[in-house]
DNA sequence: AAGAGTAGCAACCGCAGCCAG
DNA sequence: GCTGGCTGCGGTTGCTACTCT
């Protein structure tokens, strides 16, 4: 196709670090005229920069809602979990961290967390593992393209913090529950329960992000959002059990609304009866409680 | 004190998706 | 349906500050 570049290199445009004056011009212009039309901004703001550069500077540095300062341990923890879930989808991860930019998170990951993760010997994750990093379970697609989480069902159990989940109090998540699941030791016990968990949504690709972002997410054939546990009975016959629950639809809502992290975390706790697998991925099974 | 090595971060680059014409 | 401009995203580069020898 060959599209003309955003800005050619020989137009006498400034490159490299931005000066305070350039920052001020850009900030003043956007305060008055708002974001958007990046291509026109340099000319109108009197900047010798390309529009792309202006956009980047604004989004990553000048925006007033940007949070400055070190990444907190809470944020770091969330980044790690989200990265395990999403991979290098920095903008999505940043969307869960108010005030942080994708560039900042990417840099933080590359300079700090990636090395640490490597040091902890985690082998590079396959696509499959990325969306289900839980040690003793795996994820696969069945012949009908359904997404199937296979493995220790206790991994999907979410131990409820006292007083955080009405759903838990009502026993909605009992299907996920088993004894001795809250301690790390239970994660590596000798005989994993291989009950598979089936999520009855049809997907073309194994990509949780797409599932979470899908507008028609998680409707079963009856039009309800419900959760189906695919189990194997004593005779080895596969069967689907509707285990009720919220909440993939709700999960999607939370996801798409981009709530502030604190609310998001605490409200995730509220709906873990239906969100077991996802919450497990996001928050682990031992230390997810905010 | 000085040079080399490293880490952190800002900015750049190229590609892909979206959408208006 | 096609084309091309705009925007957003992720990977990469390069500069600066800091640490080590």
From TrEMBL:
Per the record, which residues fall in region Disordered?
157-193
The record ties this protein, via SUPFAM superfamilies, to: Homeodomain-like
Subcellular compartments:
Nucleus
**Domain named HTH myb-type: residues:** 10-66, 67-117
- Pfam families attached here? Myb_DNA-binding
Q: Where is the composition biased (Low complexity)?
A: 170-186
Concerning InterPro entries, the annotation shows: Homeodomain-like_sf, Myb_dom, Myb_TF_plants, SANT/Myb
* Residues in the signal sequence: none
Is Flavoprotein a UniProt keyword of this protein? Answer: no
Tell me, which GO biological process terms does this entry list? regulation of DNA-templated transcription
The entry's cellular-component GO terms read:
nucleus
Question: Which keywords appear in this protein's UniProt record, sorted alphabetically?
Answer: DNA-binding, Nucleus, Repeat
> Which residues are in coiled coils?
none
UniProt-recorded Gene Ontology molecular function terms:
cis-regulatory region sequence-specific DNA binding
- Domain Myb-like, by residue range, is 10-62, 63-113
Checking Gene3D superfamilies in the record gives: Homeodomain-like
Superkingdom of origin: Eukaryota
Task: Read off the PANTHER family from this record.
Answer: MYB-RELATED PROTEIN MYB4-LIKE (PTHR47999:SF86), TRANSCRIPTION FACTOR MYB8-RELATED-RELATED (PTHR47999)
Q: What is this protein called?
A: Uncharacterized protein
Species of the source: Eucalyptus grandis (Flooded gum)
Recite the lineage of the species.
Answer: Eukaryota, Viridiplantae, Streptophyta, Embryophyta, Tracheophyta
């Amino acid at each position: 196709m060959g599209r003309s570049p955003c800005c050619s290199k020989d137009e006498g445009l400034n490159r490299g670090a931005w000066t305070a004056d350039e920052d001020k011009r850009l900030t003043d212009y956007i305060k008055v005229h708002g974001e958007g039309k990046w291509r026109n901004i340099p000319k109108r703001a009197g900047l010798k920069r390309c529009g792309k550069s202006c956009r980047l500077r604004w989004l990553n540095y000048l925006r007033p809602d940007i949070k400055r300062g070190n990444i907190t341990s809470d944020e770091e923890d969330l980044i790690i979990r989200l990265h395990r879930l999403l991979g290098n989808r920095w903008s999505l991860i940043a969307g869960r961290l108010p005030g942080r930019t994708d560039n900042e998170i990417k840099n933080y990951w590359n300079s700090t967390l990636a090395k640490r993760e490597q040091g902890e010997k985690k082998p590079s994750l396959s696509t499959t593992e990325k969306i289900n990093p839980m040690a003793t379970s795996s994820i696969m697609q069945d012949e009908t393209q359904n997404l199937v989480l296979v493995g220790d069902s206790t991994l999907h159990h979410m131990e409820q913090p006292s007083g955080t989940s009405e759903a838990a109090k009502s026993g909605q998540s009992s299907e996920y529950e088993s004894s001795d699941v809250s301690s790390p030791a239970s994660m590596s016990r000798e005989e994993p329960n291989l009950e598979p968990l089936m999520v009855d949504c049809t997907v073309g690709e194994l990509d949780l992000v797409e599932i979470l972002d899908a507008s028609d997410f998680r409707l079963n054939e009856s039009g309800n959002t419900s959760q189906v546990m695919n189990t194997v009975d004593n005779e080895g016959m596969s069967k689907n059990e509707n285990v009720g629950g919220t909440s993939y639809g709700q999960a999607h809502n939370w996801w798409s609304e981009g709530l502030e992290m604190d609310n998001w975390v605490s409200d995730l706790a509220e709906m873990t009866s239906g969100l077991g697998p996802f919450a497990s991925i996001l928050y682990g099974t031992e230390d997810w409680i905010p």
